[in-house]
Amino acid sequence: xxxxxxxxxxxxxxxxxxxxxxxxxxxxxxxxxxxxxxxxxxxxxxxxxxxxxxxxxxxxxxxxxxxxxxxxxxxxxxxxxxxxxxxxxxxxxxxxxxxxxxxxxxxxxxxxxxxxxxxxxxxxxxxxxxxxxxxxx
Length: 137
What we know:
six-stranded mixed sheet
């Protein structure tokens, strides 16, 4: 993997040379969300919300179905490599890496070479408070 690719999208992992039609995505999955979609980066993983609960593999199936639809590939082109019972998952994608990069550019925004993609604007702290909600003493 070229170092600039890691800076551009840290959630995208390329396989060793000789596998141009395969890559993997590192995801941080949030089950039982109001709706399915991406929510920026969570460290080096793409944060994905799915409406399905994390029961009997339903959230895993929902992630694979949703991602297949987003990438425009058959569900058979995706495989859950790690994270069957964890929020952190690695999905193997058997599709051209350029297709995955183009999709990441649409959901995370185009990144210029060498720039890390930020997870979104930082929230400013409230003056005079810790940022926690609740009773004031």
